[in-house]
């Protein structure tokens, strides 16, 4: 896409833009091949009960082990995935992989019976006709209690007029899976849309947590979101907890769950298993 058009109407590319377009195209080509080559991996970040520090579950976060560029984070390739529509395939894969892993862990670590798995679902996948059937058959196949699977969607997926997404959410809710609003507080949803929404839980966005100790307005927002979740009977997780001070503050205002580098970064499956075997390794 050209940023500048000359007076003549001709599009002017400079060398930098050309290279950018090239590497973009390369990434798209690579992305299609990456599925066949099995280059995507899920990492798992612990979700912890703030009071007592119990390991409650994990959020599955996708990584791309690129043969040339190394381990890529979603920020480096999700935009391409979204624009090409390949995000639907990626999310379908992530959902299958996360369910398989959750079932395996629940079987091998039965004393952590309440273990749950959060999976991110792009709004494009949320409107795809197959999503409900997919989730249903995965729950059956792996004999998972529906509530152990939690789908995270951002507020844009259910803003007013998104009737398709809303119907999917209601159908998923009827299956019994958990529905979580991701990055809560940064989207466009009206409070009214929550009155009748099928959500069970909120994840408070990390922008509020980052400076919660020094920014009184963010602290006020954190308190308000906590009260909001409490009043509506929604479980609440704070994202991006990095310091003991942040953790203490969130615990004090009554936020139940936390996730962040203080506890652990997202880990490859084998490393997450070490936490399951030895939960006392979770600090904070
Ligand atoms: P998210 O769902 O809000 O996930 C939380 C992000 O915050 C993760 O980044 C996580 O590594 C990061 N994070 C966790 N704790 C901390 C902390 O204490 N400090 C800081 N600075 N960051 C923290 P990640 O893995 O790079 O993922 C970024 C986003 O990509 C996710 O945000 C999610 O929206 C998206 N994403 C990841 N995996 C998938 C997927 O399978 N499907 C879809 N559709 N989106 C995904
Ligand atoms: Mg998420
Ligand atoms: Mg988030
Ligand atoms: Mg996010």
Secondary-structure blueprint:
Blueprint: H1 15-37, E1 40-49, E2 55-66, E3 70-72, H2 74-84, H3 87-108, E4 116-120, H4 123-126, H5 131-142, E5 149-154, H6 163-175, E6 178-184, H7 192-195, E7 201-204, H8 206-210, H9 216-232, E8 235-238, H10 244-253, E9 257-258, E10 267-268, H11 269-277
Parallel strand pairs: 2-4, 4-5, 5-6, 6-7, 7-8, 8-9
Antiparallel strand pairs: 1-2, 1-9, 1-10, 2-3
Helix pairs in contact: 1-2, 3-5, 5-6
Domain EAL: 24-280
Protein name: Histidine kinase
Organism: Arenimonas composti TR7-09 = DSM 18010
Can you tag this structure with a few keywords?
alpha/beta, 10 strands, 19% strand, globular, binds ligand C2E, binds magnesium ion
Can you characterise this structure?
The chain is an alpha/beta fold. It has eleven helices and ten strands. The chain has an eight-stranded mixed beta barrel, surrounded by six helices. β6, α7 and β7 form a beta-alpha-beta unit. The longest helix is centred in the first third of the chain and has 23 residues. The model has no long low-confidence stretch (mean pLDDT 90).
């Amino acid at each position: 896409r050209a940023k500048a058009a000359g007076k003549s109407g001709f599009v002017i590319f400079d060398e930098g833009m050309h290279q950018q377009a090239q590497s973009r195209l390369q990434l798209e080509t690579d992305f299609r091949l990456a599925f066949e080559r099995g280059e995507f991996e899920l990492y798992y970040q612990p979700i912890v009960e703030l009071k007592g520090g119990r390991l409650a579950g994990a959020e599955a976060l996708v990584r791309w082990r690129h043969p040339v560029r190394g381990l890529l984070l979603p920020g480096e390739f999700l935009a391409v995935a979204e624009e090409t529509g390949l995000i639907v395939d990626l999310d379908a894969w992530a959902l299958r992989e996360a369910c398989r892993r959750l079932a395996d862990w629940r079987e091998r670590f039965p004393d952590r019976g309440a273990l749950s798995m959060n999976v991110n679902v792009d709004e494009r996948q949320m409107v795809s006709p197959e999503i409900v059937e997919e989730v249903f058959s995965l729950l059956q196949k792996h004999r998972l209690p529906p509530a152990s699977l939690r789908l995270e969607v951002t507020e844009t997926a259910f803003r007013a007029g998104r009737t398709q997404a809303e119907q999917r959410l209601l159908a998923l809710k009827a299956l019994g899976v958990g529905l979580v609003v991701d990055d809560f507080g940064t989207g466009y949803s009206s409070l009214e849309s929550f009155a009748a929404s099928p959500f069970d839980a909120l994840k408070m966005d990390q922008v509020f947590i980052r400076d919660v100790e020094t920014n009184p307005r963010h602290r006020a927002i954190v308190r308000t979101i906590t009260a909001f979740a409490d009043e509506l009977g929604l479980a609440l997780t704070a994202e991006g907890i990095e310091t003991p001070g942040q953790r203490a503050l969130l615990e004090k205002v009554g936020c139940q769950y936390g996730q962040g580098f203080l506890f652990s970064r997202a880990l490859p499956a084998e490393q997450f298993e070490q936490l399951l075997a030895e939960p006392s390794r979770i600090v904070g």
